[in-house]
Design goal:
Number of domains of chain A: 2
Radius of gyration of chain B: 16 Å
CATH class of one domain in chain B: Alpha Beta
CATH architecture of one domain in chain B: 2-Layer Sandwich
Largest sheet of chain A: none
Number of helices of chain B: 6
CATH architecture of the largest domain in chain A: Up-down Bundle
CATH topology of the largest domain in chain A: Formate dehydrogenase/DMSO reductase fold
Strand content of chain B: 15-25%
Number of strands of chain B: 10
Order of helices and strands of chain A: EHHHHHHHHH
Oligomer: heterodimer
Distance between the termini of chain A: 15 Å
Helix content of chain B: 10-25%
Structural class of chain A: mainly alpha
Number of helices of chain A: 9
Chain lengths: 264, 193
């Protein structure tokens, strides 16, 4: 039996607000990326989507600020006064800021839109990638496997596209199906990746099998989305959105779990 | 330039908690949090039983994973090898808490990440950290690893075996344990100092 005098810092450090951030940043990155791709093909189509992408970025930044215990110390300015390329959140801060600027320039029709769409394609990719990097970089948290570098951008694109279905309709259905299958394969590979790891990953897998109900529900919803796209597009989009949100939220929430037991 | 480290003799630790109390008082640690704590573990089975009291805190790693994870440079390593937090730069994102393999960091309600500093303010004045000064059994020894005259260096040279927490993480901690009850009788592992 293990007991303590005093309290180790093993409590969850991210709360439900962080889960909302992981949803909003997926929408911000996904919408920005689609805006860039659409804009490079057809400027007016990209411009129409730009305001929505900007809205999600603003909502995400507001959420981050509101949930931060440091919100009234204004220390966030240091994100832009430091050079920290090893830190995922540093990339996220720059990716979101430059994306917001590009979207504003596109929306207000200032300068060469094609150039802004090109830059946006790069910065939105950074926004799509950094949440996965932020979790996968932590060797101390075995549930946050390196595979999340792929799972997070794929599910971000999926849930953004699921919302876009309401906007673009039929045109995006083929992509929704493709992204659903890609996301599903990655989600199913996740337990396989844990199983192929060491002792800590084995404990993480045991936790997934024991407490992974919502993860399984998320995976099942993504499967439903892939199967229903052609027959019931609206329902498929709803399943894809809910499934991607559930999978991401479960991984973020449960991944904080400390596996530090004895140490030696 | 020093390379500060702390050694804890687990055979001498009686788990009294004086170090944890001294730390709270010295550093005004907020209620509900601790910069250091004591893990108590029962070992063996009746009648061959023992209890291991193991104080834990920030290990001031040579390769601290919390430092590169920090997006603002708030977490940093000093020339003396201390891993510290510039509170005014911290955005409380939690990235360093996630990166720490030892659960050594916590979110201070004042809005920044907090942890053991090896009482840097005391070291500057030539004093030992509060936990070292307070320990009634003298199980904690603090000093400069690079100084052959340092008590920590002398203590380690006499030790039969040195253990660190989670050596597989490759962090090269500078909180070292000797006379570990759970390791008694096992062959000593090489620990690079």
């Amino acid at each position: 039996m293990t007991s303590y005098y005093g309290i180790p810092g093993a409590a969850p450090f991210w709360h439900w607000t962080t889960l909302v951030h992981f949803l909003l940043v997926a929408l911000a990155g996904g919408f920005s990326f689609y805006t860039a791709i659409l804009g490079l093909k057809d400027e007016s189509a990209g411009r129409r989507l730009a305001w929505w992408a900007l809205l999600f970025i603003v909502l995400d930044l507001l959420m981050l600020w509101a949930e931060s215990p440091a919100r009234f110390r204004f220390s966030h300015v240091w994100l832009f006064l430091s050079f920290r390329p090893a830190a995922a959140i540093w990339w996220g801060a720059w990716g979101l800021s430059i994306s917001a600027l590009m979207l504003l320039l596109v929306g207000l029709q200032i300068g060469r839109a094609r150039t802004w769409f090109g830059i946006l394609a790069v910065t939105s990719t950074i926004v799509l990638l950094y949440p996965g990097y932020a979790v996968a970089a932590n060797a101390a948290r075995p549930l946050w496997d390196h595979l999340l570098l792929a799972v997070f951008p794929a599910t971000a694109l999926l849930l953004s596209l699921a919302l876009l279905i309401a906007w673009r309709g039929e045109e995006a259905l083929g992509w929704l199906q493709t992204l659903s299958w890609v996301s599903l394969v990655l989600v199913l590979l996740y337990p396989v990746a844990l199983a192929s790891g060491g002792a800590e990953q084995a404990r993480a897998l045991a936790l997934l099998l024991r407490r992974g109900l919502w993860f399984a529900v998320g995976a099942a919803l993504i499967l439903l989305a892939a199967l229903l796209v052609k027959k019931q597009p609206a329902l498929a989009a709803a399943c894809a959105f809910a499934g991607a949100v559930l999978v991401r939220s479960w991984i973020v929430e449960e991944g904080q779990h400390s596996f530090f037991a004895h140490g030696f | 330039m020093a390379r500060y480290a702390m050694v804890i003799d687990l055979e001498a630790c009686v788990g009294c908690g004086a170090c944890a109390a001294a730390c709270v008082l010295e550093n005004e640690v907020p209620p509900g949090h601790n910069r250091l704590w004591i893990r108590q573990r029962e070992l063996g089975s009746f009648p061959d039983l023992t209890v291991e009291y193991r104080p834990e805190q920030c290990l001031h790693c040579e390769n601290p994973p919390c430092v590169p994870a920090c997006p603002t440079g708030a977490s940093y390593k000093t020339e003396d090898g201390l891993v510290l937090v510039k509170y005014e730069r911290c955005i409380a994102c939690g990235a360093c808490i996630a990166a720490c393999p030892y659960d050594a960091r916590f979110m201070n309600p004042a809005g920044y990440v907090d942890k053991c500093t090896f009482c840097e303010h005391r070291i500057k004045n030539g004093q030992d950290p509060a936990c070292v000064e307070t320990c009634p059994t003298g199980c904690r020894v603090f000093g400069d690893l690079d100084d052959p005259e340092s008590p920590v260096r002398i203590f380690l040279e006499e030790a039969e075996r040195i253990d660190v927490l989670r050596p597989e993480m490759g962090t090269s901690p500078k909180l070292l344990y000797v006379n570990t009850p759970s390791k008694r009788g096992l062959a000593a592992e090489e620990v690079e100092l």
